Amino acid sequence: MSDEERIDKELEEFRQVMEVPSTFEDGFNWTSLLGAIFVALLMVPGAIYMGLLAGVENIGAASQWVTVILFIEVAKRAQKTLNRAEIFVLFFMAGAAMGLPFNGLLWNQFFVRSDAAIATGIAAELPVWFAPPAESESYGARTFFHVDWLPAIGLVIFGTFFGQLSNMVLGYGLFRVANDVEKLPFPMAPIGAQGIMALAEDAEEKTIEQAESRWRWRVFSIGGALGLVFGLIYLLLPTLTGALTGEPITILPIPFSDFTPQTGNYLKAVATGMSWDLGNLIFGMVLPFFAMVGAFVGLIATFVLNPILYETGVLSSWKPGDGTVSTLYLNNVDFYFSFQIGIAIAIAIAGILQVIRSMRGARKRAKQQAAMPQGSARQAVPEGRGDMKVWVIIAVYFFVTITYITVSGWLIDWHRGVMIVLFFLGFVYTPLISYVTARLEGMVGQVVEVPFIREAALILSGYQGVAVWFLPIPIANYGQMTVFYKQCELTGTKFTSIWKTQVVLFPIILISSIFFMNFIWSLNEVPSAVYPFADEIWKLHAENACIMYSSTLGEYSIFEEAFRASYIAVGAVFGAVLFWGMSFLGAPVMLTYGVVRGLGQTMPHAVIPQFIGALIGRYYFQKKMGLRWRQYIPVVSAGFACGMGLITTVGVGITFLSKAAIPLPF
Hints:
The chain is mostly helical. The chain has one domain (15-258, 348-556, 628-656). Helix content is 69%, strand content 1%. It has helices spanning 9-15, 30-54, 59-77, 84-96, 103-111, 115-119, 137-141, 150-181, 189-203, 208-213, 215-245, 260-263, 278-286, 289-311, 324-368, 373-379, 390-411, 416-444, 453-460, 481-490, 495-523, 532-549, 558-562, 565-584, 589-597, 604-625, 628-660; strands at 257-258, 273-274. Helix 2 (30-54) packs antiparallel against helix 3 (59-77), helix 8 runs antiparallel to helix 17 (390-411) and helix 18 packs antiparallel against helix 19.
């Protein structure tokens, strides 16, 4: 029995949540543009600041809800009503304005001067289009508005433009295939669309009686209240006290509590700790239960496996007293770098085979149906959705890919081996993996990636130096965009609304991103003690990045120490046996993927609260509410993100005012 024929009860719950509307509306207007400007001026700096301070990644989603609710309330007082399409476009525009294309520049200025890059000799090899050399005057002035940064800024603008163009157009093309031709269900799409429906219901209310009948808005308000209260304790208190007194008062540790030095006496080479972000608990309720169970099983497997690997001498670099960051890095070099490659290979092969089986089933159905497949494909397109011609999709694909190859070839002096790699990744790997992912997203809500395909290709190219790692390479997985287009369809939004929005957004995103990145860097060195999350985690990221970058230096490197074919083979075999064994036993699809993905070196800090949330949702709320719980919890999550966004915006605004104030000399 194939995966397509086998009914997964949990996926069926998600498929039944929403239906595609019969009509589509244009949601692009001046209200959406004002929303984007609002986000660019008020929410972008908050997102940057909180990402550095606490690693809070959901403030982008929070900014979307804050913006939409604010504009809905303003529209009500102006005796206007925003329809679903207008709300969806406003929501999308607010999220896109948080794209932060220049966010990488803060990382670049740190990495070029990091201890890891200097110690491995990578810092001296970094190209000027990545970052200026450490001797540049811009580092002393802490500013990106310097002539030395022009090459890096230019490459960011290039990548942002062509990345958005290809993502939007080619993602749409794959959606047409997976949704219109192959009729896949996209079980995860309703999660994102439910919050929009809640706000649309509220915007359409005309009387108090109607308001009371709208369950989505009530549930959204509950989540918003939770976000406000928790954000007050978790983020606002340390932010304000740190800004006003210089000594932040932290009730709940940021970014997490590290128990590794204490538990290392009992759990050898195991990273332990706890994240106190309530968002993880709610996140565990939102995602499929068995996906969370699988991740937790993977974590337990790590707890059991690591001490064994330590005693057998595999994890030889770890020593008692090491914290989470050191433990993860050392274990990565000793074993998990290669083992995770093998695990990812097993997942990729399983996903590709799953797609092949479903394609065979689709062919059988196609033979039994119409004798004119082109006509049937055209009839499958809903009227008024705002679709584009197929030839436009193909033309954009070839134009973008050739442009990427040309620019990269010029930057790398047309190195023959690298040019072969560029053509392979652009014209063979990218379309293949994008199609496979589009089908998996449509069937079970999963993404497939062939691990280290880019890295392996660049290493085999024969190039020596590190510049090759920072080229604008034509490799992408456009299949992930299919879920977005499905959400757009579920809310009755014309696709042309999204495309017009992207054109207007592009200059707004670039200007707001570079301006606020520069402003935040000018306040304090990044990372530093002022930003505890970045100060703790960026060092680990730099050390892990150097493992790969050192592989093309032409001498013995950390990469040669970490890359071991035997461990890759072990990971691939172990992952494949477990994957197919669980599938044979009839385990839920989400449990299978969760366990196999969790077999790597899982960080417990977020997994444990997510698993607790999954248990509470499954065995308390879902037992009381049934399928309605699946409709409620995405809306609660959206409200929670909104509440956190509101309280965060207040704290960051006060912080910026205090930092920018000029002290008087008396």
